[in-house]
Amino acid sequence: MRVHTREFPIPGRSDAGLLERAGYDVRHQSECSYRLTLWGPLPETWAAALGIGLAEAGIRVVRGSARRVDGAAWLGEFELEALDDSDEPVLLDYLALTRAPLDELASPLISLTGHHSSLTAKHGGSLYLEVRARDRLGFLGGLLAPIARLGLVPEELEIDTLGAPVLDRFFLTQRSGGPPSTEQRRALGGLLETLSKP
After folding, report:
1. DSSP result, 95-140
2. DSSP alpha helices (H): ranges in the chain?
3. What are phi and psi of 43, to 5 degrees?
4. How far is residue 172 from each of residues 3, 25, 39, measured CA to CA in Å?
5. Whole-structure pTM over 0.70, yes or no?
6. For residue range 36-67, what is the model confidence (pLDDT) as tens digits?
7. Which helix (H) or strand (E) holds 175?
């Protein structure tokens, strides 16, 4: 089994101090399957940048979840699948992928088959977004990058592309914190409708 680990071990629930510095661990599980764990302070747009970076490396996100646990600190775990012509997953710098500026990245084109959103009290006021789609390489980045350009980012996310359709869930807030504004919700609705057109 090939293992590549950053200089810090995976933090447990009682290891809050380790969340002060970002790190990751990626492990080869079986054949083309890998498990990525991320933790610590990450940029507000990290999930969109990671999704695009993985797609460019030929790596598919099969399922995963992540949540903000304290300020800028995150805990996340993802199951990845390396496609035939992919870069070697254990050699990638995943923190560098999360830090790529969105304005320098090309978002993959995606298409939704359904979506639902509603305001919630979770995370101090957030917009719950659920999307359904046919899976394709780069779906995560292709969805979150245009959402981030509206000034919205996830506080928590759950991704499941196993089977059909894709079912992804997000709790979105403004980049600066706080519930999405009326203008942002309207713009997001327009974006989702555009992505749902045949």
Report:
1. HHHHTS-GGGSPPPP--EEEEEEEEESGGGSEEEEEEEE---TTHH
2. 46-56, 94-98, 139-148, 182-196
3. -60, 155
4. 33, 26, 19
5. yes
6. 999 999 999 999 999 999 999 999 999 999 99
7. none
